[in-house]
Please model this.
Amino acid sequence: VDLDIRSGKNQLKLSGASDNNLNLQFDLEVLEPGSLWPGLEGQWRGQGSVKQINGSPVGTLVLQGNDVTYGNFHIESYQGSFSCDANDTQKCKARVKLTNLKVDDEVFPSLLINWMGDLKNHWVKADLVSSTVRANVEFNGECYSDTWKFRFDSASFDLENSGTWRLNNHPVDVLVDHRGIKPFKACWAQEDSKVCVDASWSAGQGWKA
Model:
């Protein structure tokens, strides 16, 4: 199989075998993302493969992008990798690194996200760096019907003027559905000091704390 699909400056190349021994490679280049998703700007390039191993499809994907803009979001550079075995989706892995993420006037020099599992059951670790804070968050998630359940095992914030605050009452369960974020309580401690937040959010009323 050899296939070359073009749409303007966007291109997808496929090559390999698709018989009983599935073995496909592909190259992706998106230089005009706005034609695929209105409002999206930037450049994306990627390589990947789909192979059959022990009777099960196994896929890999590596993506790189730069100057990505959508609405009030801008990313100077993006790197991502993904791998998954259709026979054991709990071992699917993803890693995404954003450099100089800008949201409105706030700039975050680095955001790193590691993911393991599938949408139904997964583990996520995120590290965010800004000019005033470094945040580290780790949680397990479950997605069922229209509800997403997070169980935070750790969440720490290293504040420029206030030191490091760590989640004190872990694990903390947070439920999210199409109506908003259900009420939850979380406490952070630093030596003898403690700060607790009772909060919820809804599309109609915003945050309540």
Residues 115 and 124 are 5 Å apart (CA to CA). The chain has a mean pLDDT of 92.
